[in-house]
Predict the structure.
Amino acid sequence: KAGVTQTPRYLIKTRGQQVTLSCSPISGHRSVSWYQQTPGQGLQFLFEYFSETQRNKGNFPGRFSGRQFSNSRSEMNVSTLELGDSALYLCASSLVGQSSGANVLTFGAGSRLTVL
Amino acid sequence: GQQVMQIPQYQHVQEGEDFTTYCNSSTTLSNIQWYKQRPGGHPVFLIQLVKSGEVKKQKRLTFQFGEAKKNSSLHITATQTTDVGTYFCAGPPGSARQLTFGSGTQLTVLP
């Protein structure tokens, strides 16, 4: 079956712009989590959505937001981009929510955002 | 805050040598997972450990979960060039529900 699909794979924005990233989870997976990966900070948890509801949120400013649709597809938005937002944004889906012990994550290839 | 630490950050080994990475949490973990990220790739799930003192093997890879469920290790016997990548541990520390990833150990295998 198809894996986790993220679009776009690469994008370049300038400071102050906003960006929307999309994630289509594995069919049947209801949980979608977003992580930011940078060389200096590693994998940082952004938020998790389950059945269209945000379940968990990491320690990121309000400029970072997300949502999940009824088909489990998810989008994340970053407004007023800053240079420090340059990163690989990874989406991961799981069959059940992260509060479950069976919370194995399947990651997408990521969206690499460069902010100039 | 709740943290998951990994050491070493980098490791260079000659092909055929063994490799070990260690993961330590400041709080008890309900389970520990290990992921591998190849250069330019994305993290891929390797294994999950749930029980205190659990040991699991996958071919040349041996995973251990500490008795106190606060630490874990990944040991690779006789490394190969295909083992190159960054190995991450991840767990939901304490009362947290989301997976917190360790800082990762970047393994380089020299032929």
